[in-house]
Amino acid sequence: MTPEQPGPAPLRFGYGTNGLADLRLDDALALLADLGYDGVGLTLDHMHLDPLAPDLAARTRQVGRRLAALGLEVTVETGARYVLDPRRKHGPSLLDPDPADRSRRADLLLRAVRVAADLGAHAVHSFSGTLPPGTDEATAWNRLAEALNPVLEAATAADIPLAVEPEPGHLLATLADFHHLRHALGDPTHLGLTLDLGHCQCLEPLSPADCVRAAAPWLRHVQIEDMRRGHHEHLPFGDGEIDFPAVLDALAATGYAALTVVELPRHSHAGPHYAETSLPFLRTAAARPDSSAPLSDSAPTSAFPDGVPSASLGPPFP
Q1: What residue spans of 87-207 are helical by DSSP H?
Q2: What rounded mean pLDDT belongs to the chain?
Q3: Which residue ranges does the record annotate as region Disordered (predicted)?
């Protein structure tokens, strides 16, 4: 008798601290543990484990002890809006003309790698940044590769994946762009992918479920929220167009074992509410193989079934 093959492992859900910015970090972690989350997407920011304040290593150890006591896993995220520059959102970037500015962003990523290693994180998330005015794409790709090289060396030494996120409006915006970077860097083992499932709905030619299947070999971190075709706006579950049973079934089938993190940074004013309602939605969707029945009566139909109008992609950052 042939033994049965084990099914895919259950998905493990987390919530991003960038959607809980009005809470102290300790309170945010306690909330997520109480609600039953498996982990947290920890954005290094001035209110949550400030990466630039003194005694980072000691503060990281304290957070690590708290995570362990609460039974929470962690991925380290680096999308804080103003942590490096109080006047320039997500600035400076790895693409900036000034080498000193690029170095500041790379230093943030190096700090994030050290934090991730100390916390035993699944991965360190990063992104490319937008194309600076007056910079051609070839130059920008060269800057990106050059700036990431020392970060990848540190990630390799720490055995922590660096998970780059395709972001609408950025130089690296799509799965195809991720592969362009991967090939340019020589396909390093510790370069992986952060896949934001809403971004797939927003602008990828494939459906979110097909994006998951196509990206499976490189998946190191997953972000999740609802979204509509052609609009880069992170929405609560049920307010967009994503077929969540289908996409979560595809994700589970890949054997992905790290965190799938809810990404609702613009709903931080009601973060505890959305943290409470998101997990039951995701668990229900993950348990429902039949995607024909809607999970929410309020979910709209696609306004752009035949393509993405480039003018409506919306703001380039969450």
Answers
A1: 99-119, 137-158, 175-184, 197-203
A2: 90
A3: 286-318
Q: Which pTM was predicted?
A: 0.89
Biggest alpha carbon distance in the chain?
Answer: 67
Reference 79, options 30, 40, 129, 117; nearest CA is: 129
Q: What are phi and psi of 196, to 5 degrees?
A: -90, 115
H-assigned helices in the chain: 25-35, 56-70, 99-119, 137-158, 175-184, 197-203, 208-215, 244-253, 271-286
* Residues making up the chain, counted from first to last: 318
Phi-psi region of 238 (alpha: psi -120 to 50; beta: other; left: phi over 0): left
In 3-state terms the chain splits into helix, strand, coil percentages (rounded to 5) of: 40, 15, 45
pLDDT at 290 over 70: no
CA angle 135, 137, 139 (to 5 degrees): 65
- pLDDT-based confidence at 318, cuts 50/70/90? low
Which amino acid is present at 12? R
Higher pLDDT, 298 or 46: 46
CA–chain centroid gap for 303, Å, is 25
**CA dist., res. 287 & res. 213, Å (int):** 19
Three-class secondary structure of residue 71 per DSSP: coil
Q: What is the mean pLDDT of residues 244-254?
A: 97
AA letter at 15: Y
Does residue 230 come out as left (phi exceeding 0), alpha (psi in the -120 to 50 range) or beta?
Answer: left
Please tell me whether the peptide bond between 92 and the residue prior to it is cis, using omega within 30 degrees of 0: yes
Q: Which domains can be identified in the chain, with CATH numbers?
A: 12-312 (3.20.20.150)
Local confidence band at 288 (pLDDT 50, 70, 90 cut-offs): confident
Give which of 161, 79, 175 is closest to 127, Cα–Cα.
79
